[in-house]
């Protein structure tokens, strides 16, 4: 991977998978005494052709009485949540995006928007986190990446099957991250995002292959390593802090004899600060499913 923004796009959007047969996938089984925790690395949006999902996901789901997601899936799908995102993503002091970017960064952003038929003026009151995520989603749509992802798929299944559903963090927590993730590094965030969106197709295929195969080394390289090296503050906010906030809930599952399937973005599972490494430190036996 050449720069940090690949990590940002990979983690936030957790890009979709290509369809190709494999003996492994991004699903792990963690055991501690009699407790069993399944961990699935997810992609939040997929193509129609990416279904059915790798069989390991279905195996973990069927073996579990409970399912946990990063956030409250019911609330995230509520239209009022989208309104809240827009409201919190707007500058409250009357300033605009242009006043928070250098002339160089704003010029490149405008050029990118013009080339892609996006009226930047319509986004002028919003912070970089929302603006760049919106543009990235538009780029993914060109690759026919627009279907519901792993999380939404299993949320619907869990509802139908009347399984217990849990959330690791609130919708407000996720909104606050989206709104503030570029704070203090607006120029770098925008410029790197633009650079990576210009090669989205190539990066997409690499991410897709690594995710589908459960290639831990490639997932760590694509999603974690450069982010940690080049943007330690963002890495701390994005990976470390959130993983630490989730661990008490995850570790508490050792007290339950009922298996649980925990679905989070794949970047949260791999690397030295990933949930897999943390559970191993706590004495869990962790193996690829």
Characterise this structure.
It is built from 13 helices and eight strands. Helix content is 52%, strand content 14%. It has one domain. The strands form two sheets. Strands 6-4-7-2-1-8 form a six-stranded mixed sheet, sandwiched between helices. Strands 3-5 form a two-stranded antiparallel sheet. The N terminus is likely disordered. With 289 residues, the protein is α/β, with parallel strands linked by helices. The two termini are 27 Å apart. Strand 1 and strand 2 form a beta hairpin.
In short:
The protein is 52% helix and 14% strand. The chain has helices at 4-13, 55-62, 73-76, 79-89, 103-115, 128-142, 150-160, 171-180, 186-197, 200-213, 216-230, 232-252, 275-281; strands at 27-32, 35-42, 45-46, 66-71, 147-148, 164-169, 260-265, 285-288. It has a six-stranded mixed β-sheet, with helices on both faces.
Question: Which key features would you list for this structure?
Answer:
6-stranded mixed sheet, alpha/beta, 13 helices, single chain, 289 residues, disordered N terminus
Low-confidence stretches: 1-23
Spatial gap, N to C terminus: 27 Å
Please give the count of helices. 13
What percentage of residues falls in helices of 4 or more residues? 40-55%
Give me the count of strands.
8
Beta content: 5-15%
- CA-based shape: globular
Report on the biggest sheet.
6 strands, mixed
Q: Rg, please?
A: 19 Å
* Average pLDDT rating: 85
Listing every helix as H and every strand as E from the N terminus to the C terminus, the arrangement reads HEEEHEHHHHEHEHHHHHEHE
Content-based structural category: alpha/beta
Widest sheet: strand ordering = 6-4-7-2-1-8
* Count of separate structural domains: 1
């Amino acid at each position: 991977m050449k720069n940090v923004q690949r990590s940002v796009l990979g983690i936030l959007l957790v890009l979709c998978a290509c369809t190709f047969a494999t003996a492994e996938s991004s699903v792990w089984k963690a055991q501690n005494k009699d407790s069993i925790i399944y961990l699935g690395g997810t992609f939040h949006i997929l193509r129609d052709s990416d279904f059915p999902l790798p069989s390991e996901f279905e195996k973990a789901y069927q073996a579990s009485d409970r399912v946990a997601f990063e956030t409250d899936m019911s609330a995230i799908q509520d239209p009022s949540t989208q309104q809240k995102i827009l409201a919190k993503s707007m500058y409250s002091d009357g300033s605009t995006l242009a006043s928070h970017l250098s002339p160089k960064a704003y010029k490149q952003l405008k050029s990118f928007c013009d080339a892609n038929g996006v009226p930047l003026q319509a986004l002028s009151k919003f912070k970089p986190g929302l603006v760049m995520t919106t543009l990235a989603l538009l780029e993914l749509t060109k690759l026919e990446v627009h279907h519901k992802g792993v999380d939404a798929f299993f949320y619907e299944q869990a509802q139908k099957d009347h399984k217990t559903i849990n959330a690791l963090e609130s919708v407000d927590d996720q909104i606050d991250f989206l709104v503030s993730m570029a704070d203090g590094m607006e120029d770098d965030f925008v410029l790197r995002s633009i650079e990576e969106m210009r090669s989205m197709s190539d990066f997409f295929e690499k991410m897709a292959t690594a995710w589908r195969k459960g290639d831990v080394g490639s997932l760590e390289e694509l999603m974690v390593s450069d982010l940690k090296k080049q943007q330690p503050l963002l890495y701390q906010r994005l990976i470390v802090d959130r993983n630490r906030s989730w661990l008490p809930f995850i570790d508490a599952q050792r007290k339950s004899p009922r298996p649980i399937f925990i679905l989070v973005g794949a970047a949260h599972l791999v690397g030295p600060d990933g949930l897999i490494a943390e559970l191993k430190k706590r004495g869990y036996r962790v193996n690829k499913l």
